[in-house]
Specification:
There is one protein chain. By secondary structure, the chain is an alpha/beta fold. The protein has a single domain, classed as P-loop containing nucleotide triphosphate hydrolases (Rossmann fold, 3-Layer(aba) Sandwich), CATH 3.40.50. Helix content is about 20%, strand content about 35%. It has a 7-stranded mixed sheet with strand order 1-7-6-2-5-4-3, covered by helices on one side. The longest helix is centred in the first third of the chain and has 12 residues, at about 10-25. Bound molecules: adenosine-5'-diphosphate and magnesium ion (MG). The site of magnesium ion has 6 residues, from helix 2.
Length: about 140
């Protein structure tokens, strides 16, 4: 595991700038795990990246749908496993089919699947009031 970058944001505007910096890092078929408490800004970050990549539809939270897909200059798969209680529920979703596509796959609440992944990024968001710290890490075998 190596830490690639960390960013601090104290406002929405600064978070949008962080999204812009992150948008230059990710490439088709990258997998990005998003870790952070409820309300830390995981979905917000994906929404901003979708704006930057000009997706056909505006991103919305996948916490009910579990999987949303967007076509853009870089396409996005947005997964959210918050409501998944057991890995067996994930088998029925066929979520792994989303990994080797031309899209970047973002996963909120990825704990259940992290062990199955070999090559991925992780963005950890720590927040306290208006202050947020985003740490980008790269995991390889
Ligand atoms: N600096 C900031 N960066 C990101 N989000 C912020 C910031 N300040 C306030 N917010 C708000 O915090 C909320 C984060 O919610 P969301 O992205 O849905 O969190 P999560 O998906 O991690 O549960 C959004 O309503 C967003 O507008
Ligand atoms: Mg969310």
């Amino acid at each position: 595991m190596k830490i690639i970058k960390s960013f601090v944001s104290e406002s929405i505007e600064e978070t949008i700038k962080i999204a812009a910096a992150l948008s230059k890092i990710f490439e088709p078929s990258d997998v990005v795990l998003l870790e952070g408490d409820l309300g830390s800004g995981k979905t917000f970050l994906v929404k901003e990246l979708c704006k930057i990549w000009q997706t056909e539809d505006e991103a919305v939270s996948p916490s009910f749908s579990i999987i949303n897909q967007y076509r853009g200059t870089l396409s996005v798969n947005h997964l959210d496993f918050y409501r998944i209680e057991d890995v067996s529920e994930l088998d029925n979703l066929g979520w792994e089919e989303f990994l080797n596509t031309d899209a970047v796959t973002f996963i909120e609440w990825p704990q259940l699947v992290e062990k199955q992944l070999k090559l991925y990024y992780k963005i950890k968001i720590q927040f306290n009031g208006q202050k947020r710290k985003f740490t980008l890490k790269r995991f390889e075998e």
